[in-house]
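User: Run a structure prediction on this.
Assistant: Running it now.
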Amino acid sequence: YNRMLGYEPGELDGLAVDTVVASEDWLRIREHIRRRFSGKEPISRYIFRARRKDGSEFYVSNIATVVTRDGKRLSVGVFEDLSARIQEEYEKRTQEQHREQVMQEAIHAMSIMSSMRDPYTGRHEGRVGNLAAAIGLDLGLDQRQCGGLKICGTVHDIGKISVPAEILAKPSQLSAPEFEIVKEHTSLGYEILRNLQLPWPIAITAYQHHERLDGSGYPLGVMGEEIILESRIMAVADIVEAMASHRPYRPGLGIKAALTEITVRAGTQLDERVVETCVQLFTKKNYVLPA
């Protein structure tokens, strides 16, 4: 322990404890010692900040117990300098944060590319992402999960870059063959997104956002619990935004019509709890789709 702190043998004798231990931690350590000698804590395990001879602080772990030698009760323990482990964890976390930032920038670039090709799709995706995140928050998801929903929303239709522009901008209802072409966007979107290393299920969410609980959706017609929660949220947000907003082939139908539609489908095609949360967002919390 002397060497760990940079002292020669004997140099620690007579030094005040707060010279070698952060004063804020000493009170906690003293309580561990008291409990150890009273028998309430046979083995103590704790981490504290130690102070080297040069004044620098570092984290140390200690595992200690009480032994009796020559009739005297002594505290013995093993100290470990955690500096290397903490540095390794810091570097790992920094690398992960950098990788995540790069991936998010790639997603942002995809979103811009989608908007340049089809302004409607780009605007739609942004609004869907915001609504999905708001629904997720009210469902009790944490901020990180909601952030993932927002990001996914901005690229959930990225696969539409494969759909001919004349189909996307067609001012009338699509024919059956044209609709089959549009439906392929979920599979292509999955292929585009699946290799992005992000802490959210973005690829599968985009892949499943047109699936329905009763198996009537696409591309696979999966049912019930096979559809992840993020996809259920995205499905509701997608329908609401699409119905409320203008489309190339019709004017916007408004929020009231959109909420009525998802309410009718709740429990059969759409997750009932997600629908209820979405409806309350608009009717009780005055949520408004971003301009």
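The chain has a mean pLDDT of 91.
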